[in-house]
Amino acid sequence: MADDLLSQLKTMTTVVADTGDLEAIRRFEPTDATTNPSLILQAAQQEARRARLAEIARHATDIDDALDAVAVEIGSEVSALIPGYVSTEVSARLSFDTDATLARARSLIERYARHGVGPERILIKVAATWEGIRAARILEREGIHTNLTLLFSFAQARACADAGVTLVSPFVGRILDWHKANEPDADFSGDNDPGVKSVKRIYEHFKGHGYDTIVMGASFRNAGEIIALAGCDRLTISPKLLEELSDTHGRLARRLTALDAETAAPEPQDEAEFRWEMNEDAMATEKLAEGIRKFMADQRKLEALLGELRKS
């Protein structure tokens, strides 16, 4: 058996590429791939894509149409390189609008179908707001799989599991960022990392209560966080950290193990309980809002790029 850490990780965790870079996907051979507005922007800025993007932009009915067409085109290219899911995000602008999220998600699935990619291959990414989780509940019942992103709190995780979402993406690195900024003298190394602790708590809760929702750690700042979560259902990893794991040799120990469910699931949260728990969690409230703003900032840059190409 290969002794590099990436090969060992693949034996216990489904590895997901956190990129739209086709060459990186070919090199590291992940099972799944995730995209978001920031990653789509990076892919769209590649010179080799300019002519095709200009064609898409000119034929689109409006900028929203162009945005989704670009996301689905890149997602379809990615789907041809991997055996598993491709995650494609609903506009962050719709994070607090359940009905608009539903309409956009259904439209993305229809676009993928026109590219020959079935709904079983797609995860629709939605921000884990109360409105986004409500939309995900409905989509799952329609057979559309969802990935609830920008997840920073146990309250969000519980609500997602109650809704029956396919997958949640707790953000490890951004949780660490907040705690380091607010507690600069604290030791957050190894198992003290608050982002690692958050994923472990969610994983143990889901497995202990028999939820089917997949836990996928995301937003890693260093390889140590990944090593500390070896055995998690899925981990979505940037090309830089995939390369580091591939180049590092040694024994990788499984850190998370799914046990049989021991107790029945607790009563689902209602909206008031969810909002109160989020209000009590300053980190989760701040990072969720910040994450939505950051995704929108990159989406606006992509909108501007496509707007220029429409005129070219």
From TrEMBL:
Q: Which domain of life is it from?
A: Bacteria
Is Cell membrane tagged as a keyword?
A: no
Q: What class of enzyme is it?
A: transferase
**Residues annotated as the enzyme's active site:** K125 (schiff-base intermediate with substrate)
The primary location reported for this protein is cytoplasm
InterPro entries recorded: Aldolase_TIM, TAL/FSA, Transaldolase_1, Transaldolase_AS
Output one GO MF annotation. Answer: transaldolase activity
Q: Which UniProt keywords apply?
A: Cytoplasm, Pentose shunt, Schiff base, Transferase
Question: What reaction(s) does this enzyme catalyze?
Answer: D-sedoheptulose 7-phosphate + D-glyceraldehyde 3-phosphate = D-erythrose 4-phosphate + beta-D-fructose 6-phosphate
Q: Where in the cell is it found?
A: Cytoplasm
Q: Record's PANTHER family? A: TRANSALDOLASE
Family statement drawn from the similarity comment of this UniProt entry = Belongs to the transaldolase family. Type 1 subfamily.
Protein's name according to its UniProt entry: Transaldolase
Gene that produces this protein? tal
